[in-house]
Amino acid sequence: MASTQQVALVTGASSGIGRETALALVKAGFTVVGTSRDASRSTPLDGVTFFDLDVTEEASVSALVEQVIGRFGRIDVLVNNAGIGLMGAAEENSVAQVRGVFDINVFGVMRMTKAVLPHMRALGRGRIINLSSVYGLIPGPYLAAYVASKHAVEGYSESVDHEVREHGVRVLLVEPGGTNTGFEANSTRPDSPLRVYDKQRRIAEQVLAAAVEGGDTPATVARAVVAAATDSKPK
Ligand code: NDP
Q: By three-state DSSP, how is residue 235 classified?
């Protein structure tokens, strides 16, 4: 018999927002599964069971979902948090770099959503919470491909939300401002930056740094995710 304990699955829980969100969901009473591309190297988190996941690999996505269902019997909440940035002026980013970012930020969300939805439909309930960004709503110079990926996440999420409501499932968005995590260091950068953009790039970097200074923290973003997962107001 399936357990009645609610299960939350957080992608990219090895650092930053995902890590804080996994811990906040444990505190909120969920059984929490976190993922990393190499779970054996992730710092253990109290109450979080780690599995391997690379959202760019179809086989990795289906193996993960099978493992979680096999072990815990259900998935009530999916947090599509795994994501990376791409810095650089539009003409500096190669198509391969842009594809790489879309493969994680957009197709990763789609692969996970497709794999988890049948289980939520069978359960008759579920919440899929997608980490977009303030850049899913506004433009961001020197971040065009990243911005485009998050706008894609917005359109996909809101559309699927309308498809699945009748099955008791909702697809919800969390849109953080600049948040101090490993995100910037983990972002892809142009191989050969064009000098013509140096001055404007410096200004854009200052704007980004200021946004992180005055922006969200992993803990405030985690509170927004828990509120979305539990249909409550952020505490
Ligand atoms: P981090 O770089 O700290 O964390 C990113 C996570 O994504 C890591 O845990 C990493 O796990 C995982 N990841 C990367 N590539 C893959 C992959 N191919 N498959 C599976 N997991 C992967 O960044 P943040 O915590 O800041 O970012 C989390 C989310 O929040 C992202 O979607 C980001 O776009 C969004 N966001 C961030 C903001 C910020 O300013 N930091 C602002 C707005 C939104 P591992 O390396 O262990 O596999």
A: coil
Q: What is the CATH number of the domain that holds 183?
A: 3.40.50.720
CB-based contact 55:108 (threshold 8 Å): yes
- CB within 8 Å of 29: residues ≥ 6 apart: 6
Q: What is the C-alpha R_g of the chain?
A: 18
Q: Is-catalytic flag, 132?
A: yes
179 lines ligand 1 (CB under 6 A): yes
Domain ranges, residue 90: 7-230
Domain tally for the chain?
A: 1
Whether 2 is in a domain gets the answer: no
Distance, CA of 48 to CA of 81 (rounded, Å): 15
Residue 150 appears among annotated catalytic residues = yes
Ligand 1 pocket check for 81: Cβ under 6 Å: yes
How far is it, in rounded angstroms, from Cα 152 to Cα 150?
Answer: 5
CA dihedral 32, 104, 201, 181 (to 10 degrees): 10
ipTM score over 0.90, yes or no:
yes
Is the pTM for the entire model greater than 0.95? yes
Lowest mean pLDDT among 29-43, 102-116, 143-157, 189-203: 189-203
Q: Where are the beta strands (DSSP E) in the chain?
A: 7-10, 31-36, 48-52, 77-80, 126-131, 169-174
14 as an active site residue: the answer is yes
